[in-house]
Amino acid sequence: MRRVQVMAGGREPLTSREQAVLSRLLAECSTDDIAHELGISRSTVKCHLRNVYGKLGARGKRDAVRIARETALVPLEAAAS
Fold first, then answer.
1. Quick check: 81 and 75 in contact, CB under 8 A?
2. Model-level pTM?
3. What span, in angstroms and rounded, lies between the C-alpha atoms of 29 and 22?
4. Distance, CA of 7 to CA of 2 (rounded, Å)
5. What domains, with CATH codes, occur in the chain?
């Protein structure tokens, strides 16, 4: 059985790859751009995004970006790069 750490607010923490995808989402990168920058497939990006949305309780990209900014989940310098 896998133990899961929980963030404040009862949420499971984002993995480092999910954080990387989210930071690029905050920088307004497209799914294709994110895949290219991280050297992963578009399908893998979509999988990471679904996980991010679920962990944040977001309904989509805009909602995830809003939540990430409000809760400072990604450092500002990471979001700007």
1. no
2. 0.79
3. 10
4. 16
5. 16-73 (1.10.10.10)
pLDDT tens-digit series, residues 25-71: 999 999 999 999 999 999 999 999 999 999 999 999 999 999 998 88
The pair of structure tokens assigned to 9 is 């607010």
Query: Residue 4: pLDDT above 50?
Result: no
- 51 in Cβ contact with 18 (< 8 Å): yes
- DSSP classification of residue 52: H
Determine the longest span between alpha carbons in the chain, in angstroms: 38
Structure token digits, residue 13: 């923490």
CB contact at 8 A, 70 and 64: no
